[in-house]
Design goal:
The complex is a heterodimer.
Chain A lengths: L3 E4 L2 E4 L4 E8 L5 E7 L6 E7 L2 E5 L6 E7 L2 E7 L7 E8 L14 E2 L3 E5 L1
Chain B lengths: L2 E3 L4 E5 L4 E3 L2 E3 L5 E8 L6 E7 L6 E3 L2 E6 L4 E6 L8 E9 L6 E4 L3 E6 L1
Parallel strand pairs in B: 2-12
Antiparallel strand pairs in B: 1-4, 3-9, 5-6, 5-10, 7-8, 8-9, 10-11, 10-12
Classes of the chains: A mainly beta, B mainly beta.
């Protein structure tokens, strides 16, 4: 199974809502990633989890809170978002290797993304 | 700081034509990795290739080929005999592995449209 699944596919939320994005993979990968992609822009790395521990946080605002409950699951908790946070949120996974097991330079498998709209 | 430039924002070709997507990068790292990813309209990025900075061998995989030239800091991607299914946004990316600059930087992408 080389699939990364993400739920929901689409999410519309108000600025006061709390919601969560979910990502799951069963490839045995121990590095997982969250990216944000605005329309017609490249993906921007947000967080990297390596062996279920947060290893990189690319200066992401605290209204985004990642969680890795086990080696197959990655969540992104959203709270008090702004309209400019509307974007496609992509999850990816890879073999963990290299410095601190981050595996960023390995082949990453991406999910289809969650398209988030903040009203 | 590192940078990836994909100067071609959009390219349109007719099916069966060959097309080359350009990628120029800047980095101070001596060890780094270059990637190409494809993003079809469905949204998920698909890994195409990874090259490390010590391996300048060109690579061919079916209709795809890559030309890595450190002398010009370029990592270009050619699709031979393009097909409609090749229509997608293609991203070139750079990962610099020095301790203080562990970043994954994507280029702005090239939208390729292959017309029937």
């Amino acid at each position: 199974d080389t699939e990364v699944t993400q739920t929901p596919k689409h999410l519309v939320m108000g600025m006061t809502n709390k919601k969560s994005l979910k990502c799951e993979q069963h490839m045995g990968h121990r590095a997982m990633y969250w990216y944000k992609q605005k329309a017609k822009k490249p993906p921007e790395l947000m967080f990297v989890y390596s062996y279920e521990k947060l290893s990189i946080n690319e200066s992401v605002p605290s209204r985004f809170s990642p969680e890795c409950p086990n080696s197959s699951l990655l969540n992104l908790h959203l709270h008090a978002l702004q309209p400019e946070d509307s974007a496609l949120y992509l999850c990816a996974s890879s073999q963990a290797s290299g410095l601190a097991g981050q595996g960023i330079y390995n082949e990453q498998f991406f999910g289809p993304g969650t398209r988030l709209t903040v009203l | 700081a590192q940078k990836v430039t994909q100067a071609q924002t959009e390219i349109s070709v007719v099916e069966k034509e060959d097309v080359t997507l350009d990628c120029v990068y800047e980095t101070r790292d001596t060890t780094y990795y270059l990637f190409w990813y494809k993003q079809p309209p469905s949204g998920e990025l698909v890994f195409l290739i990874r090259r490390n900075s010590f391996d300048e061998q060109n690579e061919i995989s079916g209709r795809y080929s890559w030309n890595f030239q450190k002398s010009t800091s370029s990592f270009n991607f050619t699709i031979t005999a393009s097909q409609v299914v090749d229509s997608a946004v293609y991203f070139c990316a750079l990962y610099g592995s020095s301790g203080s600059a562990r970043q994954l930087t994507f280029g702005s992408g090239t939208q390729l449209t292959v017309l029937p």
